[in-house]
Amino acid sequence: MIRLVLLVLVIALPARAEEIVLGLSRNQVAITATFDGSDVLIFGAVKRDMPAPDTGDLGVIVSLAGPQTPLVVRRKERRLGIWINTDAFEFEYAPSFYAIATSGPIEEILTSETDQENRITVPQMIGYLEADAGESAAFTDALIRIRAEEELYQVLEGAVDVEEDTLFRTSITLPANLTEGDYAARIFLTRDGEIVDEYITAIPVQKVGLERWLYNLAHENALVYGLMSLSIAIAAGWGASAAFGLLRR
Amino acid sequence: MQIYLPIAEVSVNAFLLLGLGGIVGILSGMFGVGGGFLMTPLLFFIGIPPAVAVATEANQIVASSFSGVLAHLKRKTVDLKMGVVLLVGGLLGSGLGIILFNYLKSLGQVDLLVTLCYVVFLGIIGTLMFFESLNAIRKSKKPGARPKRRKHNWVHNLPFKMKFRVSGLYISVIPPVLVGVLVGVLAAIMGVGGGFIMVPAMIYLLGMPTKVVVGTSLFQIIFVTAFTTMLHATTNQTVDVVLAVLLLVGGVIGAQIGTRIGVKMKAEQLRILLAVMVLVVCAKLAFDLLLEPSELYSIGAEAHA
What we know:
Order of helices and strands of chain A: HEEEEEEEHHHEHEEEEEHH
Shape of chain B: globular
Structural class of chain A: alpha+beta
Distance between the termini of chain A: 66 Å
Distance between the termini of chain B: 40 Å
Radius of gyration of chain A: 24 Å
Strand content of chain A: 35-45%
Order of helices and strands of chain B: EEHHHHHEEHHHHHE
Number of strands of chain A: 13
Helix content of chain B: over 70%
Strand content of chain B: 5-15%
Oligomer: heterodimer
């Protein structure tokens, strides 16, 4: 069905060299109370007005990035027998979530110059303060390692299926510990490591229902929220006490 | 069943939280401690951001303490007058504590200081209580050895004396207020109710009977933690009500069970158990400081000092 729709799209649209036509399994991700992660299916086709060029290998790179925030990474060292934070390194920005899926090994479908220009691979997505660039390697590695363990940074080499150099599809799993914001989906079409076409779209990730209401209340009416939390606590304490009192009779 | 927490922004297992709340609630009811010094590190461990864990824990302690205090009120084991005096000191202390906390934060290394605070205080209190209650148990086993009467020490020579009928004390209000201030300061820095410091202080410094200590401590803790909850909710927006509800459902039920277990046990046994628990937590925190951590790096939100 999807392929049929894409085929129609490929035929119907006006032509340029090589161009991406994209579809998403969902336009937004809703965080509900029972949210425990979500899969986003990203699929599309390469549209051509002429037969595929026989020079260069086709590569497809799909990336999905969460909101960028500044953060600090600290390193522990042993001082006077105990382990304490000594050095710290500030990152100007780093995405809260970043997944990159490719149709093949990254080195083969993306040159490092193109990567640097477009900030595609995980290390390139993390911006550090240039002055300390030499010191940053260990801290950047640590940041990527910790976030990768939490499945917040994912490198999925070969996870993009390409059929007949035209149709492509991949699935990215969003973990449960997701933060809100607009998630930028970027799709790159490369030939011999150079970008031929690029497609950018946003997938909003938002809390809905009760989650949304509570979050807004906590931030906009902090006093009311605080009093509500306390009332719930007192009521629960009293309720349990009364219930146990009844049970004993 | 996974539940997404709106403020903490993580998804956790609801039954895990109910269970944790229940276990800590039982301990809270038994010993008259809020349980914060156990629960807060546990919440860190399951991946709740520290700021949210500390603030939400304060809210949960309100619930379990309230549930516990009602059970104690029915048995008339709460010295309300002493509680109010301690509370005056406590609110004063937590105000001072938050000023001190922010000062330490501006110097950096606040995490280390909090952990050191835990290790030092838990270590001292745990050791003292352990040996004292061990002696008490030994004495009670010897036939004919009557417990000696309370000493008449310097505490009894201070001005502003007040009669605390429930505790059977006629002492100056200065020591209880000072105890309240000390507990308040530590509670604000360490993000706990402070029962584990207050309970021994009431027994050993003020000479209150163990029977009324637990209820009175819970009474005071309700107000101090309610104050802390409001401060966190209005300044940092870090109280997660969904997390709090899950913890407190387990917590209030646990507290009711704990109170009933506590009443059936001998005071010395209760104290030695509390001492052991305090020492275990202390040892765990001390080992964390001494042993090489498996991950040397940690990620924090950017804080411009």
